[in-house]
Amino acid sequence: MANSPRCDSFDRRAFFRTSAAGIAGASLMGMTACSEETDGPAPDRSAILPDTPASPTDEAWAPVRAHFILERGTAYMNNASLGMPPGIVAEAVADGYRAISTEPLHGKHDLQDQIAQVVLPTLARTFGADVTEMSLTRNATEALHLQSLSLALSPGDEVLITTQEHPAGHKPWMVRATRQGITVREVFIPSPLVSTEDVITRFAAEITERTRAVAFCHVTRGGHRYPVRELCAFARTRELVSLVDGAQAVGQFPIDLHDLGCDAYSASMHKWMFGPVGTGFLYIRAGARDRFIPEFVPGPATTGAEYAPPGTADFPVRAALATSLAFVERIGLENVEARCRYLSDYLKESLSGLDGCTLLSGPRERSAPGSTIFQLDGLNALESVPLLEELARTHIDEHQRDGHDAIRVSTHVYNTRTEIDRLMEGLHAARS
Ligand SMILES: Cc1ncc(COP(=O)(O)O)c(C=O)c1O
């Protein structure tokens, strides 16, 4: 793997001794694990993590960018679909597999320990939750199914969702509607959002005496940021359960789940959190466990882990989340937010000079920092995706929904203004 030393033989003991050194050590276990001596204290590998950037500029983030192993010349601006882990995360996955292949029995136990003792506590701390409220999933879709399918409901009960849900936030409710006679109603939410009051008023107007729960995105696929705290507080006043899809929110800005006040929250770790592909989490608030019936244990859930499918899991992938979390902790989510905003502000400013361009992202308080959507007269969004790859070697996505034929550009910390300039040239060329 580029940027990372290779080795011929793998030293499992050194590998896990390193990870036991704590989150900074654990985060680096993939980098040089195989060259370690088997005895002696674990080395301090914290120098391999990037320094915390001092400002949002490209210069300040260049050392962070250097951690990503994307092929040279390609600009990746489709993070809202799938993000990119840094090289050390890819190495951590590889080393986990090496550990389990070299010594399956101990390798498995060591990886399980890593997940229980490092990954889950760090995850809980990062997102302001208790460790017993968290469980790991393969992605947000799995978590959304677990939270929606486990909600205690009776035939005739109603659930309100919005017109902006991802299929993963929609399908599990269709299952319940079809099989159990639950009424699912969609609250129309305009794109872009109008205001916090408007969102709440639209929900309030749809509530009936049979309504039991509200489910909505923290950030939609189009990058619209919902007033989650306010909506959850509103739901509580009506004694409704609140279920949130955080797939697009987690990793773009700091999130404190207890402060948000939701009852359930589902997220991806492989979009904005630098996690390896196939990682996500489910949060069920401890005080809300009586509202969610676990699928996999006979009685009421006593811990969040009981909501997740049991059995052998992709331990090397999950254990590598220790590395992603250490990386995020080092650069700081508030700095990620500022950096993402810095880049999307520059993109928006550049788009404002483009004839026939309509920006569809809302203002700061109602938009995610990293995702920008816009329509361009004379350019079909679906066709723009391969065109931009061909003309500017830049990956973007279409957003043909919510009544738009929009292009979505989702920039993360490793993108640069130069790449945005190249995207703009590509957009000009694509239209001509
Ligand atoms: C809003 C939203 N929810 C859920 C998902 C599903 O996420 P995952 O791919 O992790 O299952 C996505 C993916 O794009 C999304 O944008």
Task: Explain the overall architecture.
Helix 14 runs parallel beside helix 16. This protein has a seven-stranded mixed sheet with strand order 2-8-7-6-5-3-4, with helices on both faces. Strands 9-10-13-12 form a four-stranded antiparallel sheet, with helices on one face. A two-stranded parallel sheet has the order 1-11. With about 425 residues, it is of the alpha/beta class. The protein has helices at about 10-20, 25, 30, 60-65, 85-100, 105-125, 140-150, 165-180, 195-205, 230-235, 255-260, 315-320, 320-330, 335-350, 380-390, 415-430; strands at about 75, 135, 160, 185, 210-215, 240-245, 265-270, 280-285, 355-360, 370-375, 395, 395-400, 405-410. The longest helix has 23 residues, at about 105-125. The chain is globular and about 60 Å long. The two termini are about 40 Å apart. Among the domains are: about 130-325, Aspartate Aminotransferase, domain 2, CATH 3.40.640; about 335-430, Aspartate Aminotransferase, domain 1. The protein has 16 helices and 13 strands. Pyridoxal-5'-phosphate binds next to helix 7 and helix 8.
Please write the CATH class name of the domain at 131-326. Answer: Alpha Beta
Task: Give helix and strand order, one letter per element, not per position.
Answer: HHHHEHHEHEHEHEHEHEEHHHEEHEEEH
CATH topology (level 3) name of the domain at 131-326:
Aspartate Aminotransferase, domain 2
Strand portion, in percent?
5-15%
The average pLDDT score comes to 91
State the share of residues found in helices, binned by percent.
40-55%
* First-residue to last-residue Cα separation: 40 Å
Structure summary, number of beta strands: 13
Second CATH tier, the architecture of the domain at 131-326: 3-Layer(aba) Sandwich
Number of continuous helical runs: 16
